[in-house]
Give the backbone structure.
Amino acid sequence: QKEVEQDPGPLSVPEGAIVSLNCTYSNSAFQYFMWYRQYSRKGPELLMYTYSSGNKEDGRFTAQVDKSSKYISLFIRDSQPSDSATYLCAMSANWGAQKLVFGQGTRLTINP
Amino acid sequence: NAGVMQNPRHLVRRRGQEARLRCSPMKGHSHVYWYRQLPEEGLKFMVYLQKENIIDESGMPKERFSAEFPKEGPSILRIQQVVRGDSAAYFCASSAQGTDTQYFGPGTRLTVL
């Protein structure tokens, strides 16, 4: 069993829709949770960073963490064609410089 | 303010040859990480280095792979005697001392013929 599970999709939604992306994990030591966006043939770029359980909002993006269920989500409101990319969840157990454990990534397409 | 730089962006090698991938971290960053991304998969951690030190190499294959981050110059990921299964995108990330945000480079896509 993988430490982090993420549905690879692909997921296709119309422009303006609310998108929900999710990951589950098995390691209860994970405390730091990130969402990265990766455009085709590019490197991942950090979108959201959260610590422990709770919600964090940044513009059209909201990250949620439920540690009791070992489940994290990323919501995108008013989705735009420019949001079309692969979204990767990542997590780590301790703060500071160390390895990140990534999900497989979900390929998202926003249709105009 | 240049980001993380990787070169070459594309590398083609024949089986048995050596591959050298280079990574220059963001200015002021002293931590470097290497990840490998196989087709249709997420990134897998390989190694974490600071200047002249390997801190965590728990994701590195035991044979043929090595990494260094010398006092001067870029970090190097070296793959000896490449095989077709080494074909992947190799990403480097860097972070600053006292922080935990990793910034990724554009990757090197290695193709082994």
Summary: Chain A has a mean pLDDT of 93.
